[in-house]
Design a protein that fits this description.
Belongs to the mitochondrion-specific ribosomal protein mL43 family. Keywords: Mitochondrion, Ribonucleoprotein, Ribosomal protein. It comes from Spodoptera litura. This is Large ribosomal subunit protein mL43. This protein has two domains: 96 residues, Glutaredoxin, CATH 3.40.30; 47 residues, no CATH class. Helix content is 30%, strand content 18%. It contains five helices and six strands. β4 and β5 form a beta hairpin. It is elongated. 10% of the residues are buried.
Length: 186
């Protein structure tokens, strides 16, 4: 095992703000497009700004878009997320379609997880080499090819009577007993 991740900040994998439980919250907070008005390497980003940026802003009203023209610099896209992460991407000599795809990737992810050393909630000194236990670990493999419903695998007559069923039978017997007492009294 390598120790290259020992200097990264530790963190757990979790859904940000329980995203998807109630409603979806876009994690991208702001995106900054830095480009040169005359440099040839910024052509793809300039094409994206001219053709697709207005549509992107209309489809994503929760994302703030900044344009930052810079002289004699390469094109850069900086995305800032709700959890404080910043992702910096160089767009040098990328085409309009490539930039469209990369901006969509930045829009749908939750930040840069490569700077976090992932931790687990459980720890053991002797991890299992057989894999985790599941409810199907010790099941009979004949269940995989069985024709269901099958009396051999799921017969309910072998189960003990439930308390509800016992109460129902006692009530019916009590009701029948009262009816018989009324008939004999007449």
């Amino acid at each position: 095992m390598s120790a290259k991740n020992i200097f990264l900040k530790p963190g757990f994998v979790r859904a940000p703000l329980q995203n998807g439980v109630g409603r979806y919250v876009c994690q991208l907070q702001r995106i900054v497009l830095k480009f040169c008005k005359s440099n040839g390497s910024s052509r793809g980003l300039r094409d994206y700004i001219e053709q697709d940026l207005v549509d992107f802003a209309k489809e994503n009203p929760g994302v703030v878009v900044y344009l930052k023209p810079r002289r004699h610099r390469g094109p850069v896209v900086v995305a800032e997320y709700l959890n404080g992460d910043r992702v910096w991407m160089n767009m040098h000599n990328k085409t309009h379609s490539e930039i469209t795809k990369w901006i969509d990737v930045l829009r749908t992810q939750q930040g840069d997880n490569s700077t976090t050393r992932l931790r687990k909630y459980q720890y053991t000194d002797h991890p299992s080499i057989q894999g985790p236990w599941t409810p199907f670990t010790f099941k009979n493999p004949a269940l995989n090819t069985a024709e269901l419903p099958n009396q051999a695998y799921g017969a309910n007559d072998r189960l003990p009577m439930s308390a509800t069923e016992q109460l129902r039978l006692m009530f019916e017997a009590q009701k029948l007993g009262k009816n018989e007492e009324l008939k004999t009294a007449e």
